[in-house]
## 1
Amino acid sequence: MNRPRPRSLVITAGDPCGIGPEVILKALGQSLPAHVRLILVGDLAVFEQTAKRLGRRLPAPARAIGGPGPRWSALSFIDLAHRQRFAPGKPGAASGRASLDYLDAATHLLRCGLADGLVTAPVTKWAITRAGHPFQGHTEYLAKALGGSEPVMMFVSPRLRVVLLTRHVALRDVPRRVTTTLLQHTIRTTADGLRRYFGIRHPRLAICGLNPHAGEAGMFGLEEQRLLAPLLRTFARDGVRLEGPVSADGFFVNPAGYDAVLCWYHDQGLIPFKMLARDAGCQLTLGLPMIRTSPDHGSALDIAGKNRAHPGSMRYAIELAAKLVNRRAHEVRAP
């Protein structure tokens, strides 16, 4: 009887001029997750330089994937060997192109069945665009490359799960972007994700209001009455436990009892999330055909190369992805 191959995660280096290589090395330096193989995609020279600055050794072994009869080790490295020299904190078209090359190599492994999940270090979007590739974000790029429904971003920590209705858009555009169709899709995708990834059969969701005090009966805006009130009635008939609209200024003092909270825009959800997570949280993308996590921060160019980046979110992203791919493998093998 053939033994199933080990579950594997591919980790992309992100912007080689950002903190991605640093937080990856720090996270992997603590310990490797159990029962999963890691494939790191980047430039070996960048990781060697980063390790030297940190006074660390590269995780071993660094073995390339491919060739006849490849052997799986705890950690393998795919070196794309770009000729450019990447300086910390100084991205440009070359580093943007490299970031996208790492991501394309990772999606190739996923499509070929050589990886079961993906962890992405942060990129610098304007650098990728400068390289001639309009780039809205990892989430949109992966949805196009790998297929699946319209993706939904869920931020996960031991104390709180936050889902964003809109992502990186101007605040003035949020009311126009949030439609009944978007709300319905996000709520259903969130409930399905909680069932699929966390085993929560009957999720309890809260949804924030857009305006102060959730509109206060229309005094500060009508979005809550126009969009949310009919929606709450619809989902109640469908058996989905959706409560709200809640006032964001008070809800996050004690979010216990809810499996996730839906927020209208970036700062409404991520300020309280990061305060409560404290480097023990990450982003999980719902709606993709495979598991993808990422740290809850950007490429942090201002501290790149200064040994100041905290690896907690990257570590959490790797651990969560490993846990989920192993859980999925167990479910597939179960009779």
## 2
Amino acid sequence: QTARLDTLPWGGLSLWQGRETFNYTSDSVLLASFAYLAQGASVLELGAGTGAISLLLAARGARCVTGVELSPTLAALFAASVEYNGLEQRVRATQADIRNLAPHVPAGTLDLVVANPPYRRTDSGRLRKASIQQAACHEQETTLDEFVRAASFAVKYRGRVAFCYLPERLVDLCLAFRQAGLEPKRLQLVYARDGQPAQLALVEAVRGGRPGMDVAPPL
């Protein structure tokens, strides 16, 4: 397929994206801004797609970022963007299944794990035509619980996990976090306009954290 080169909103970085595949959205930019990033942090992105979040976190100062993507097409575009931006020493695009991270990521070693997982169950919403787009929006290849278990596997004790998700499934996300030993600690709801329902939930959890969540002002 034909690819195009787009510009990311900060860091002076560019991103290769396929014209017929699911491209990054404002959700990725919001999550990359929301996640707490300690100085020199090591980061893992689950379901990285073309790597927008990974590249943005590298631009924010992450020491090393690994992005794991199941689709060979998207992983190849991600790898091309890493090379184009000269980030081979800091960002790694890995084509792999998040349900089998052990060969690619050491357990319990990452400072931060981020994910923008498929929001909808396969029995809800309108399915998109392209299979890659369906996998990005609906839990066809991997489920929310599998994303959370992968994050729990990779993050270190007291490390952080940040997801963006639908507000209507916020209870599902927080329950999955807690069952995996990840305590939800920070929440920010995103609105398109004042007076309308929230469109996105940004949630950060801490492995081994104590109960108690801070709710940030609405965005």
## 3
Amino acid sequence: MKVDLLLKNAGVIDETGSFFKGKNLIINKGIIVSVSTELSKEYEPADQLDASHLIITPGLVNLHTHSPMTLFRGIAEDVSIDDWFNKEIWPYEKNMTEEHAYVGALAAIYEMLDHGVTAFADHYMFPESIIKAVLESGIRCDLAPTLFGLSDSFQADVAHSVELIKQYQHTHEVISLRFGPHSPYTCSFEQIKQVVDLAKNLGVGIHLHVSETWEQVEDSLKRHGKTPFQVIAEAGCFQVPTIVAHGLWVTPEDRR
């Protein structure tokens, strides 16, 4: 059987975390079809690599990123989250262009690939720029274009997300899309429910920030009488595949 690649005599860490020496891996069309100690004559690899100095592991997955923001790394690490967002980062971020976003995403992607990350879930603006970087690099990406409920362009941004989902979902092997309402403190209950209903209709998921600080939980309890987790649950978020970013302040009721 003709196959694409043989990785010879590699160290292998499998999905359980167990380590094995001297394994030969047969790869065809991006799929590992055989892992064995003995070299099999069944396969005829078009190429082979001596991997005796390498350890092969399952790819890592980064479940929440803002890849273009790699450009802002190191700015004001010693301030409160509100000051970081509003006073330090926003003056830079509001001047970001599509080209900046592309360069930032590409830098983040190659850093991830260099550290064994083969897939990431991104939540950011400039989705076309991120898609361009993903397709150029070959990494896998689950992308949620950010939707800010307080923005005058919210409905237009939702419509744009729908267009991107229809364009890229199931048509590109390395790209998946979902809706990205920013959070229950920047999007209203009605806005989150609208997006959830669209996600159900299109067969995709949600990615949003929830309970990142205790202050967010307290504010939600004052405004709604519910925690952020309870708000998004009532909006139907957990009826579709949902990535919760941060989720640092979780109550016992939230766990249920």
## 4
Amino acid sequence: MNGRQAIILRDVRLAFRAGGGSFQAVAFFSVVCVLFALAAGPDLRLMSKIAAPVVWTAALLATLISLDQIYRADREDGSLDVIVATSDELALTAAAKAAAHWLSTGVPLIVATPLLGLLMNLEAGAYAPLMLSLVIGTPALSLIGAFAAALTVSLPRANLLISLIVSPLYMPILIFGAGAASAGAAGDPQYAANLKLLSAATLFAAITAPLASAAALRSNLD
């Protein structure tokens, strides 16, 4: 096992422990969906229509609340300084941190989606487009969030600042993701176009975010 695999396993293990970010994210995700369902009232057609955008919005917000934890444990125990000082390929290490965040936050949100879809009266044909859009789009949320966490790593409790940084960067992901899910459910030909744009956004984040995260870590910890 190499060092980056060890980082991923350690972060995932910490996230799933009692008080870890995974359960908090899923709980917040569920609460947001329930609140939207209650706000929609007894109109099942309206609820079904807004289900995909609501799930995407809830997933984005649930991701936001866990971003501060990406580097928190490493910062608190001093290992982050060692990682930055000794890592020859810091961008790959930053990518591993983003991957661990997605495995411990994004994947549980995706797993919880079918159950919340039932609550939101999601149509049977809408599940596959919604799930596929989340699988493609949520890694970008973790990659961009990891960059924001690296940018503010020297600041204690930077949740609000991280949210301000990532909010405009998350908007294209939300638009393309919710658009793909809604178009797929309606059989709209724009489904493929939205899915391609979402894939392109995630690919762009996968290439640029680890490099930007590495530069931010070096700048903050010099």
